[in-house]
Design brief:
Layout (H helix, E strand, L loop, with lengths): L2 E10 L3 H12 L4 E4 L17 E2 L7 H11 L6 H22 L25 E2 L5 H15 L3 E4 L2 E8 H4 L12 E8 L4 E12 L20 H9 L3 E2 L4 E8 L11 H4 L3 E3 L19 H15 L4 E4 L5 H7 L1 H9 L9 E10 L2 E3 L11 E3 L4 E2 L12 H17 L22 H18 L6 H24 L4 H22 L11
Parallel strand pairs: 1-2, 1-8, 2-5, 8-15, 14-16
Antiparallel strand pairs: 3-4, 6-7, 7-8, 9-14, 10-13, 11-12, 12-13
Length: about 525
């Protein structure tokens, strides 16, 4: 029998967007439940965001910043969303990050903020905390969340499906009403219990989907869970074909690790195994071109040289400066036997960021009533067909704040329909089958729905993935619920949705490159 909990606002995910939303709603005197499928709130993609957050400098302007976002996004961006980001972003950085959370952004000897540049930025507008900006911001906001009396935290709570009136009400006539979300079904992975969490408003902040690809900078929990749940619930999803591949992830047998774009912003040189600057003839900005162009440039260089990686070299700079400016990257590389103060870093592209997601408006509302989506799981339209560097944390901040503010203004007590109790199945799933299914997903997405696509590859991917989805769903219906089978079900659903979106879009634009 399922256990039930009730709250005003439910936030699923504890990255920056979810954390900001939870804290904002709590300070509006709302009862908040915050859940994460990890054993710590310090999970998701936020803590891996090295570069920084975009913030207007004195040499900058709103128009210039907007133009950079449009150029990176292939002018496929939603204008009102870009304007909101640029207008509200700096205010919220000052109000929340600098004044409330006292984030220790880098400052010069005169106590002024240090600004740096990244690819496709026409001005130095990135503020940062060494090369661990996301981690430090998330750590600080989590400390505030843990102390707030209006927030109840549940770790090891894995969302299974959104509760909607059209799918879960045991009153058949509810099908005639406009569908709305009234919470989520979760698995307490520690206690092995099913929970129904009822909420007036549900905010999905479940993060990215990089783990459906063979090479990714994303952590293990980034499987597209939020997109899969929203898709099954009937919420509109858009721009799913636009998957941004970060050009530079460490190529090492220990796994992929993000090598921040800020290295190139600070002068790191990119070249192939023969020492050739292959970006020279591809774009005027060379190694600082938009990410999709650099990633495809590297992809072609790998094909041309038949070498498994290219190289990024910052070793010509002073060792003391490198260690001070990039301590996280320096330590990680040193731990796997690579001293970046004396050697170039072997790098390859890796799935990094989803520019599409659950379609939302300027307040974060999805097409499904009472359901919000924020952060990487959502599509605000800010990024268009390709994200400008260091705008993701800013988007999390802006929409995390505005979604919670908007949800908190609703004082009505929404109806919670009666639902049937959850029936727990008992069939154990062979772990080898799950591993093999994931390999099929990752290889299919990487080879057929990756950096360079053709319609033939996409059609092959669709056939493979749909057949696999049929088998996985069949197993899920009789399976004993585990994180592995829930994650696999979400991963295949997200993969099918992306492939379908890529097939439907015949225009090569931004991250969606049709050969």
């Amino acid at each position: 029998m399922a256990h039930t909990k009730e709250t005003n606002i439910l936030v699923i995910g504890s990255g920056l967007s979810g954390a900001v939303a939870a804290l904002t709603a709590a300070e509006e005197n709302k009862k908040v439940i915050l859940i994460t499928n990890s054993n710590t709130l310090l999970s998701g993609n936020t803590k891996w965001a090295q570069g920084g957050i975009a913030y207007s400098s004195q040499k900058d302007s709103d128009i210039k910043f907007q133009e950079d976002i449009y150029n990176a996004g292939g002018r496929h961006n939603r204008q009102s969303a870009v304007e909101q980001l640029v207008k509200d972003g700096p205010k919220l950085i000052e109000q929340l990050l600098i004044k409330k959370l006292d984030i220790p952004f880098e400052k010069d000897k005169n106590n002024n903020l240090c600004f740096t540049s990244e690819a496709a930025h026409s001005a130095d507008r990135i503020i940062h905390c060494k090369d661990a900006t996301g981690y430090i911001i998330q750590k600080n906001i989590i400390e505030k969340i843990k102390k707030h009396p209006n927030i109840t935290i549940h770790t090891n709570y894995l969302a299974i499906d959104l509760l909607t009136s059209s799918h879960h009400s045991n009153s058949s006539i509810d099908i005639y009403n406009k569908p709305e979300c009234f919470g989520v079904i979760t698995l307490d992975t520690k206690e092995q219990k099913i929970n129904h969490i009822y909420a007036n408003h549900t905010i999905l902040a479940t993060g990215g989907l990089g783990q459906i690809y063979l090479h990714t900078t994303n952590p293990a929990e980034s499987r597209g869970d939020g997109i899969a749940m929203a898709w099954r619930a009937g919420a509109r999803c858009v721009n799913l074909q636009y998957i941004q591949f970060h050009p530079t992830a460490l190529y090492h047998e220990s796994g992929r690790f993000l090598i921040s774009e800020t290295l190139r912003g600070e002068g790191a040189k990119l070249y192939d195994v023969n020492g050739l600057n292959f970006m020279k003839d591809l774009h005027p900005l060379q190694g600082l071109a938009p990410r999709d162009i650099v990633a495809r440039g590297i992809h072609q260089a790998l094909i041309n040289t038949q070498h498994p990686c290219v190289y990024l070299d910052i070793s010509y700079k002073k060792a003391s400066w490198i260690k001070s400016r990039f301590p996280t990257i320096y330590k990680h590389c040193l731990n796997v036997g690579l001293d970046i103060t004396s050697k170039a870093i072997p790098v390859v592209p890796a799935a990094h960021y989803s520019c599409g997601g659950i379609s939302v408006n300027l307040k974060g509302e999805s097409s499904l009533k009472r359901l919000y989506a924020i952060g990487e799981a959502s599509c605000t339209g800010v990024h268009g067909s390709n994200r400008l560097a260091s705008t993701s944390l800013l988007e999390c901040l802006v929409w995390g704040y505005l979604s919670a503010k908007n949800a908190s203004q609703d004082t009505s007590q929404h109806k919670i329909p009666k639902i049937n109790d959850w029936i727990q199945e008992s069939q154990e799933i062979d772990s080898t089958l799950i591993t093999q299914n994931w390999l099929t997903i990752k290889n299919t997405m990487w080879n057929y729905v990756g950096l360079v696509r053709t319609r033939e590859r996409l059609r092959s991917a669709q056939l493979i993935l749909r057949n696999l989805q049929h088998d996985i769903e069949k197993s899920y219906q009789t399976a004993k619920l585990t994180p592995a089978i829930i994650g696999l079900r979400n991963g295949i659903q997200t993969s099918v949705a992306i492939t379908t979106a890529a097939l439907e879009d015949r225009v090569s634009r931004g991250c969606h490159y049709i050969e």
